[in-house]
């Protein structure tokens, strides 16, 4: 005979205060996601116009680099916009599914909403690990450069 653990029997119920907190969280997440999409649009616009701006600067200031610097900046800004898109998209899907869940009293939409929230935080966590690794490498190479530069 199989025994079931206490956790398998456990069913979570939200009281009205928890639901109110979650509703407010969904509203703020929606707002932050919209602002994030606007930020991504600005990054793409900067990427588009970076080539023109830097080629103009290159023609007025000799030795600046001109179009090649603009192309590099365009690539960097497009890369940042692409990287920023995924956490903003996951946050938007969390908010929109959360709104639907409360509007229609839909448990599946709430589950989907939490799935997107998990994806949002997973993406941010992995990005944080990558950035910490880059910082660690920069510190190591900085110390090595300082030691060998003497």
UniProtKB/TrEMBL annotation:
UniProt KW keywords: Membrane, Transmembrane, Transmembrane helix
UniProt key word Membrane: yes
Highest rank taxon of the organism: Bacteria
Transmembrane segments: 28-57, 69-92, 123-148
Protein name, UniProt field: DUF5362 domain-containing protein
Source organism per UniProt: Flavobacterium defluvii
């Amino acid at each position: 005979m199989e025994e079931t653990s206490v956790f398998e029997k456990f069913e979570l119920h939200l009281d009205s205060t928890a639901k109110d907190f979650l509703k407010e969280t969904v509203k703020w997440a929606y707002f932050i996601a919209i602002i994030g999409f606007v930020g991504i649009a600005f990054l793409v616009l900067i990427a588009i116009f970076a080539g023109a701006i830097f080629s103009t600067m290159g023609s007025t200031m000799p030795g600046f680099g001109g179009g090649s610097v603009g192309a590099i900046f365009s690539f960097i800004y497009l890369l940042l916009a692409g990287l920023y898109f995924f956490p903003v998209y996951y946050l938007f899907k969390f908010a929109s599914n959360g709104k639907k869940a409360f509007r229609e009293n839909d448990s599946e939409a709430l589950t989907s909403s939490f799935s997107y929230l998990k994806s949002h935080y997973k993406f941010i966590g992995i990005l944080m690990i990558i950035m910490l690794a880059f910082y660690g490498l920069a510190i190591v190479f900085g110390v090595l450069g300082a030691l060998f530069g003497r």
